[in-house]
Amino acid sequence: MRSYAAEFIGTFFLVFTIGCTVLAKAPLAPLAIGAVLMVMVYAGGHVSGAHFNPAVTLAVMLRGRIGLRDAAVYWVVQVVAAVLAALAAEYVVDPAQVAALSPSGRDIMVVILAEVLFTFALAYVVLNVATSKDHPDNSFYGLAIGFTVAAGAFAVGGLSGGVFNPAVAVGAGTMGLIAWSKIWIWLVVTLAGGAAAAGAFLVLNPEDRGPQ
């Protein structure tokens, strides 16, 4: 229960920050998003592993650090936290008008490529800095994870939404930032990015499989 509570809190504040900054059109939204992820990773990492992202949870499960049962509960908690955070952000900001991302044609391929690449990068960084036996007690993992998201948001946020997280996609849909008819794109490609990162980690670290 401690792990589930930590996942709820971290995911809530991540999505709440995303919602408030994006709905308010804050110019430094990517920096705020990366910063809140960083501090929540430091706050909850020792309790739950600080996934706050179903794609990261999938990567950690495929890497062998958690089982399917815990992963399934993590996914439910993360999505519920995202929906509640999205509703809270909408209430706080109360935007006059929201434009939903609804890609078509070439834009679909742009979203797929941008989201799968940066979700891969995020999950790959998490696996290497937060689960590797070579870094059992490091102090840089939160900074590395937060800055990966900030870099991705600055780089492709204006093109793909800078989601990199299925729970964030659900939260964005709740806030009207992503069209529900197209949300499957973000769900599929972010989970694929997480799975690919787990595969890459295991290929590069063949002896670092299973619980630490």
Give a verbal description of the structure:
By secondary structure, the chain is mainly α. It has one domain: Up-down Bundle (Glycerol uptake facilitator protein). Helix content is 73%, strand content 0%.
What's this model, at a glance?
By secondary structure, this protein is mainly α.
The structural class is: mainly alpha
Radius of gyration, in angstroms, nearest whole number: 16 Å
**Cα distance, first to last residue?**
21 Å
- Compute the number of structural domains: 1
Topology record:
Elements (H helix, E strand, L loop, with lengths): L1 H22 L5 H20 L5 H10 L4 H26 L12 H25 L10 H20 L5 H9 L8 H22 L8
What are the main properties of this structure?
212 residues, mainly alpha, Glycerol uptake facilitator protein, 73% helix, transmembrane helix, Porin, channel activity, MIP
